[in-house]
Each structure stands twice: as structure tokens, then as C-alpha cells.
Amino acid sequence: MAVERLFKDEATEEKGDRARMASFVGAMAIADLVKTTLGPKGMDKILQSTGRGRTVTVTNDGATILKSLHIDNPAAKVLIDISKVQDDEVGDGTTSVVVLAGELLREAEKLVNQKIHPMTIIAGYRMAAECARNALLLKAKDNKEDSEKFRSDLMKIAMTTLSSKILSQDKEHFAKLAVNAVLRLKGSTNLESIQIIKKAGGSLIDSFLDEGFILDKKIGIGQPKRIENAKILVANTAMDTDKVKIYGARVRVDSMAKVAEIEVAEKEKMREKVQKIIAHGINCFVNRQLIYNFPEELFADAGVLAIEHADFDGIERLALVTGGDIASTFDNPESVKLGHCKLIEEIMIGEDKLIHFSGVEMGQACTIVLRGASSHVLDEAERSLHDALCVLSQTVNDSRVLLGGGWPEMIMSKEVDELARKTPGKKSHAIEAFSRALQAIPTIIADNAGLDSAELISQLRAEHHKDTSNCGIDVISGGVGDMEKLGISEAFKVKQAVLLSATEAAEMILRVDEIITCAPRRREDRM
Amino acid sequence: MAAASSVTAAPRGASSKTESYVDTKRRDDVRQANILAARAVADAVRTSLGPKGMDKMIASANGEVIITNDGATILNKMEVLQPAAKMLVDLSRSQDAAAGDGTTTVVVLAGSLLRSSLSLLSAGVHPTAVSDALHRLSLRAVDVLHGMAIPLDLSDRDALVKSAATSLNSKVVSQYSSLLAPLAVDAVLSVVDPAHPDLVDLRDVKIVKKLGGTVDDTELVKGLVFDKKVSHSAGGPTHVENAKIAVIQFQISPPKTDIEQSIVVSDYTQMDRILREERNYILGMVKKIKATGCNVLLIQKSILRDAVTDLSLHYLAKAKILVIKDVERDEIEFITKTLNCLPIANIEHFREDKLGFANCVEEVSVGDGKIVKITGIKDMGRTTTVLVRGSNQLVIDEAERSLHDALCVVRCLVNKKFLIAGGGAPEIEMSRQLGAWAKELLGMESYCIKEFAEAMEVIPYTLAENAGLNPIAIVTELRNRHAQGEINTGINVRKGQITNILEENVVQPLLVSTSAITLATECVRMILKIDDIITVR
Asked: For this UniProt entry, what is the primary localization, expressed as one broad class (chain A) (predicted)?
């Protein structure tokens, strides 16, 4: 093995078998690393940061784990990339895709050792992937017409996704949250308008979906705490007088009175600005920058609710959901689009006071408030919920659904096996290998749950030999079960993406026969 | 390379159709290390549990010394590095946020549950099975607690005082619990908004610490207290009756522009004129203030320029206006809420309708320092100030922390109007009922729950141990009494025996117990599910 040579400082070159070996080992190491997080009984990992603060993250999300790794092996990087792409495209299945690619490479390694040319393997894999995809297409169900059924499909998908995460115990609650949130979007995949707020304290079951928008800020002193039919101006402008200055400018005067005059003039400028803002006919003003005491008082006098120092993300979202523009000049009140909402009020979550905007212009918007024991729980819950939201929003567009629990893999594996039997030539070995790699997924799910995988897989295969079987691994009872009855579903889009990108990644790594590591730039050693 | 090192070299996969052999050495090691580290944290705070618990002295890196009995504070200052240990620290912090009290209990409970999990794991139970059992256990335990709870009426002040006293009894300041408990109750009840009877914002209770005197001198002030002196270098008043108070956010000093400025002085007469102008300018401001009838000024601190100058103080003193300067900006909201006035950011806006009214504003000397008290405020907002006194800084700090716990306890009761017996009674009862439940279940779950039910006994065990009693004798007797249906018997630490704990007035809010059990199980489950520690950037 040539792994240790990868870390040399100087440029190195590895050829042929050695290069391939290095890629295989690196990719498989990555796959093995995340393997244990797969499935409903998968384990979590602690990510301990070596940077400042030594922050600790506890996660089950493949993409998060892989994203944070230090990796030098180029093949391993390819796998990390596909998991990232999977995360961006469909949001879930980030672990599955890496594990499948790892298994494909593991099988390929054996074939290479049997003196089968990588190109033959690639050709076989391609045929197999095509065949597997067709098998999935045939089996996928589409319930788009029947909205009742479609909703229950979504619930099932959400629950399946969440069951492998920290939220598994309260999955029904969260699945409902996620489905409601996504259905509000009415088909758009813009998850921006679903805001997730994390507040420590309480327990996960206390999390709730709120229609409207919540801003984690305070209302200025002496201003109304409740506004109905609010007209909101969202702005990014300097409301602190010290910043109203021209760099390097200075005034020379010869008397104190003149200084006072200038001060008054400055105040007057600010007052003008505030008056211009108020002239928009607003009763709520949200600014990204600080609002100083003076303008704050002016707003209070005018009965306008002013919120200062809203974070960037916050105001962009607020502008989006209330349907307003972010303004920075206030000379043309008619050209600025104001945001609207029915009610602004102060609410209390846990120990903190937040500002709640309800009845917002964009009906799709909603906020999910997560409660949990600690920041670790909350962060992980957010990641899990995000996965579920991604998958659901994809499913709303592409409503084809598959069963879960290793069922699609077994279906594919059966079809691919058929193909292998029909195909003459060396390629059939590769096709067979592909089928074995597919079976590895249910195997790992069973292993992680502490079940006897060899036994279960053979049972599953026997079941699937009959036509139209709905069998998969029932992790809860520890046997083979009917996935349809158990309500375990997955989105077709996720499975298809897993299959295609894993195959592509494996193919790419297989093609490599030489690795050239460039000499690193001279810098202090990081390790 | 983390990735390469973590590869367990067991060659397996779909093709191995023989034995299912999995090499889990590393995962078990990681889990064990996590559990041990977390338990070490729990053991560190164990001895501070209960009324006879000991205190810890913490010397921080910058030489500061803290003596405390508060679990959350101890853990916060411990600076642990091990990730799982850190999770326990977070656990106590969340208990602090959720209930405010029981921060030690929750950690000790988690430690004990971890100990049981370890023995379950080594018996070959799969971690997820343990974790699922824990979840069911926590739901059931909360039911048990609800079954034991006694509903409470907020008008029943005695009951509130009792539970605040229970919380205070375990602190350094326990001998003052008869003083502090009613104080905490009054403080919280006075800020409850009748419109939202379930919500209490503890930020409406301000705690002012002042060195000198003893904790006995701690008092609840119906009004405002500033830990500041009145600015009277120019001989201004220190006592004002029928005060009209203005909170101002501008400064009474020579003008300063935002644009950089300089005054060019070319001859001697000009200098005179500038001085005169300055005097006129300030005099003009003071006159405007005086014209509204204002006689007390609270001036917000400014980093840009002096809040007041000697000159302005002089004029203000002549106008018989009492001045308090350097009020922090974040205090302004509390002050305006209390005084029922509006902050004034510009001299032009100085109007009478923005002022607050109080019967008396006076400077009082306490110990070696002075404070300003504002009492008899007209239309006072729903806020309260507590003036904490103590003979040294350590005592004051600890008193403040204890008072905060007591306030939280009362707040919990306002949120969730149920009481539960203290003194280890709920834990023993949970242990008994869950143990009985375990016998009805089948399989792995039953085995795990039985183990965890026993783990709950750690609380009474530790209470007894810390009180110097024989823990085994006490716990077994408690079990016996509970089995006979006396569900409210607990450890009476003062008498050193087992009695009906309700009669001893040892009660605590239900919320503290339920949140302790749910948070502890949630945290333990999280630790159990971890099978690897990966070092990342």
C-alpha cells in the first residue's frame, strides 16, 4: 500500500496499480468512516474542532461529517464532493451515496485483482446502472393526483428521513412540521422562506411551526409593542450619527456657538432623514444597522416601531416574506415597495423576547422554532430538519415515491442480476459485482442495528425472488417486513441521484491510473 | 489522518456470506471513553448536591476566586475539553435556562444513567436499544412525576415561600433562607403581568450588589436602586422629594460635532468670548431642563464625550437638580419601564410629558459606599429591584446566584402551577414505579429499564451520603416506605431521618424535576449514540 507516500511534501507520482490502490483505499476509508451513520439505528459522530474554541459538533449527517474532514487523498476528495453535490441537489442520501460508491470500488478492486481491465468494469457498471435505474422507474409510484395520498406519502418520506436522525423519537411531530412547511411553499423549492430559529431550553417536542416570521431582536424603547396592519420599511442605512461624516473632513470655526450650530445641523440632518422615512407612511422600520438614541426617540415620538441591528440574513428574509424592498435611500417614497403584515407583536420563547410578524404578504413563509436541551441537540435537529425539508420540497416537484428500508436496492440488485445472466463476456462479472454492491446497503443498515445481516439479506433475496414483493429490513422488530405496511418510503429523486452519482464517482476513480501530487507551496507545516 | 486511522481492517461486505463478524473495538473504546469522561464531570459536582452539600472553590486562570454550590456555575468554570464532558456542561446550562434550579441534580442523574448504560453495553446490549429504552423511560417518569404533583394556587404565598426555601437550603446562604425566600417570592409576584399570568421575565427583577453589611441586610426595594453616587462635586442636592425624573441620552457639556472640528483662536479677547459662549450654551440647556420642572437627571453614559463637566454640574447644582451620570445603555429600558417615562435623546425634545415622577430620590450610604434609591414611583412599571448585601465579594456573588435560583424556582411555579415533594422522594418513587413497570415489559427494554430505574436512586443516595448519613440504610428504608404507599416520604436531612417530607415543607416545583429527567435522558441518549470522535478543522 502506498498510502504513506501520499503525504510527502515533495511532488510525487504514482503509477498503475499503486495509484489505483491508493485511490481505492482512500475512497473506501471514507466510505467506512460514514458507514456506521447509515440507517435508522446509525450512530453519531463527534466532530472535534482543532481550531480555536475547540467547538464540538455531534452529528449523524454524512455531508456534515465529510465536509469537515481533513483529507489529502484525492480519491477521497471525489467522494466528499459527490456527497456535497447530493446535499445541494436533493439534500438527503448524503451517506448512502458515499457508501454505495465505496462499495462499488471495493467490488472493483476484487475484479481488478482478477485481471479484468478497469474499462471493462466501467462498461459493466454503466450497463448495470442503466438497468437499475429502469427497474426503479418501473416500480416508482406517483400519487400526485390524489392529494390525500400524496400528503400521506410526504409524511412517510419525512418520517423515513427523520428516523435516522436525532429527531427519530418525535419523528411524527417533526414530519408534520416539515410537511406543513413544505406544502405552504406550494411547489417552490425556495427553502429561504422557511426560517428555522433555535432556542435552547425545553425539549424537542416543544418545537413548533409558526405562520409568519420571527425576528430575534428587541423593539426600541418607548415604542409600540404591538402593531396591527403594519406597513414595514426594511432598510440598510446608517442611523448612527457618527457615521455621517466625510472622511478626513474637518471644520474650522472661531467660536463655540458655531460648533453648537454645526451640532444642531447634524441633528437636523438626522431628523430630516427620519422624517423622510416616516413620510413613507410606515409604522414599522427595520434597519440592518444601529439606530442611535436620537433617531430612536424620533421614531418613538412618531409612534413608529423601529428595530435596529437586524442581521443581514434577517432583513433579507423579512423583505422577502413581507414583500418589501430593502431601501437605502428615502427620497422617493412612491418608488419604494413597503412590506405588509397583519400583526407585529412581542412574543416570549423560553427566556427570550422575540418579535413576531404574522399574516405576512408571502403566504408561503413560515418559521419553525426548534427547542432542545443543548446547542448540540439544536444544531443537529436543524440539520436533520433541513434534510427533511429538502427532500420534501424535491418530492413536491417530482412526486414519484419508492419504498424504503433497503427495498429499492434489492429490486435493483435483482434486475441487475438478471442482466448479468443474460450478458455474455467479461462484463457480466462487473454487472454481478454491481449487484453485490447494491446489496451492501441493506447489509450495512442491518449491521448498524446490531442484526444478523447475512441472515437477513438472504431472506430478503428469497422474498424478492417472488414478483412484487414489498419486503425490506424492519429495523425496529429486527426482521424482514412489509415496507408498504410499515409506511417507510423514500423519494425517487433521492434514490436516483444516489445511484447515478455513486456510479459516476466510482467510474471516475476507476479510470485513474496515475496520481501526481504537486509539491505544496512552502508554508509552515499544518499538521 | 483521521480517515485512514479509523478504518477497521475487517474485510467484509456483501460477499461475506459466512459469519457476520464485526470489529467494533474502536467504537466501543470511543463510547467507553465518552462515558467515563462524562461521569468524571458528574462526580466532580456530586458532593455539592443537597442541603448539606459542600461548596467548591474555583480559582480561575486570572486569579479570581469563586466559592459556589451552584452546579451550573461550577461546571461553567471548569473548562473541560473532552467533547462528551462538554455535553454534560451544556446539559447543566440548559437546565439552568429551562428551570434555573436543579443544575447539580441533572448532572448527577445523567452520570448515574451513564454508569448503568455502561454496564448494559458491556452486557452486549446494542446502544440504540439502550437509547430507545431511555426514551420510553423518560416519558413514563414524567407521568409518574405528574401523578405525584400537588396543584398550587399562586395566591398561596406560603407554598411558594416553601419551595423557594428548599432551593435556598442547599446554598451557602441557607441560614438566610427565611429572609431570602419570601423576598424572592415577592419579587417575582410583583413582576407578573396580569395580562399574561404565565410569563415572567426575570430581567424585570434587577439585582444590585453592594459590599458591606451582611446578607441579613438584603432588601427588596419598591423602586430603583443605582450602585452609584450622586454627582455632587459642585454641591448639588442629594435628596429630592417629589422628584420629576428625566432619563436623558444626550450630554450636558460643550457641543461636539461628528465632523472633526477645531476652533481657531487668534487673539486673547476671542478666548474670553469662547469661554463665555460655552457658559451660555450650558446655561441655556440647564434652563430648558429647569423650565420643565425636572429636578432629577439620569444621564446615559457616552463614550464620545463627557456626560457632564464641572461647569454644567455647577449650574445644575444651582438649579437644584440631582444628577446621576454614567447610566449604562442597556439599563435604560429597565429604568424607563420602572419610572414609566421616556428617554430623551435631544434637548429640544425635553418636555414634561416624558418625565417620570417619584416621591423620593435620595442618596443613602451603605457600608463604605453610597447608593441612590428612588422610591414611591408614580405608576411604576412591573419591575422590582433587590439590593443584595454581604460582608465580602464572594458571599455577595454566591448570594446573588442563590437568589437567582430561588427566583427561577418561583418563576417555574408561575409557569407550571404544580409542586412536588423534595428530599429525594420523587426519585425514589420514580425508581419504584419504573421498576414495577419494567417487570411488565418483555425483552431488552425491560432489562434496560430495570437498570435505569435503579440508577434513579442516585439522588437520595447522594443526598444521604452528603449529609453524613448511612446511604444504604436510608435508601432501603425509603424504598420500603414508598412500597407501603407513603409516596411523600423523603430524607429529612436536618433531622437525619426519613419523614413525610411534605410536612417538613420541603417542596420544589414540578418543572424542575420533569425538566431534569427529560434533559438528562436526552443528553445520555446523545452520548450513547456517538461511536467516533473525528478531529476536524
From this structure: cytoplasm
Which cell numbers in the block locate residue B217? Answer: 441586610
Do A43 and B531 count as a contact with CB atoms less than 8 A apart? yes
* Residues pairing with A250 in the sheet: B260
- pLDDT tens for A313-322 read 777 777 777 7
Report the C-alpha gap between A192 and A16 in whole angstroms. Answer: 47
Q: Which of A153, A170, A387, A417 is catalytic?
A: A387
Q: Residue B342 and residue B381: Cα distance in Å, rounded? A: 12
Mean pLDDT within A244-262: 69
Contact at 8 Å (CB) between B406 and B244?
A: no
* Distance from C-alpha of B388 to C-alpha of B386, rounded to nearest angstrom: 6
- The pTM (predicted TM-score) of the whole model is 0.77
Cα distances (angstroms) measured from residue A486 to each of A405, A480, B265, B487: 10, 11, 90, 41
| Minimal CA separation from A161 to chain B, in Å | 17
What is the C-alpha to C-alpha distance for residues B209 and A522, in angstroms, rounded to an integer? 56
Confidence at residue B345, expressed as pLDDT on a 0 to 100 scale: 77
> Which one is catalytic: A64, A94, A160, A161?
A94
**Does the annotation mark A170 as catalytic?**
no
Q: Are A355 and A344 in contact (CB under 8 A)?
A: yes
Q: What's the pLDDT score for residue B16?
A: 33
Tell which residue, B210, B241, B237, B215, has the closest CA to residue B226. Answer: B210
Tell me: the pLDDT tens digits for B13-60?
A: 333 333 344 556 677 788 888 888 888 888 888 888 877 778 888 888
Beta strands in B169-255 (DSSP E): 205-211, 219-221, 223-226, 239-248
Q: Report which of B50, B102, B163 is spatially closest to residue B504, judged by C-alpha positions.
A: B163
pLDDT in tens, A163-222: 877 777 778 888 888 888 888 777 666 777 777 888 876 677 778 888 777 777 777 666
pLDDT digits (tens, 9 = 90+) for A112-132: 888 888 899 999 999 999 999
Q: At what angle do helices B471-483 and B458-466 cross, to 10 degrees?
A: 130
Across the range B99-111, mean pLDDT stands at 87
The shortest CB-CB distance from B274 to any of A49, A255, A455 is to A255
Q: What share of chain A is helix, strand, coil (3-state, %, to 5)?
A: 55, 20, 25
Active site residue A95: yes
pLDDT score of A1: 46
Decide if B217 is catalytic: no
**How far is the C-alpha of A509 from the C-alpha of B441, rounded, in Å?**
51
Q: Which chain B positions have a beta carbon within 8 Å of A204's beta carbon?
A: 522
* Span between the terminal Cα atoms of chain A, in Å: 22
Contact B372, B387 (CB under 8 A): no
Task: Quick: pLDDT tens for B197-242.
Answer: 677 777 788 888 888 778 888 888 887 888 777 776 667 777 888 8
Q: What is the DSSP letter of B172?
A: G
Task: Quote the mean pLDDT of chain B.
Answer: 80
Give all strands (DSSP E) within A122-193, no chain letters: 141-142
**CA A318/CA A365 separation, integer angstroms:** 10
pLDDT at A248: 62
Contact: B249, A297; criterion CB under 8 Å: yes
Q: Tell me if A201 and B97 make a contact (CB, 8 A cut-off).
A: yes
Q: CB A273: neighbour CB atoms within 10 A?
A: 18
DSSP one-letter string for B43-81: HHHHTT-STTPPPEEEE-TTS-EEEE--HHHHHHHH---
Q: Is B90 a catalytic residue?
A: no
Q: DSSP label at A239? A: B
Question: What is the value of ipTM here, to two decimals?
Answer: 0.73
Query: Which of the residue ranges A32-46, A364-378, B75-89, B146-160 would you say has the lowest mean pLDDT?
Result: A364-378
d(Cα B337, Cα B332) in Å, to the nearest integer?
8
The better pLDDT of the pair A519, B485 is held by: B485
Q: Cβ distance A34 to A356 under 8 Å? A: no
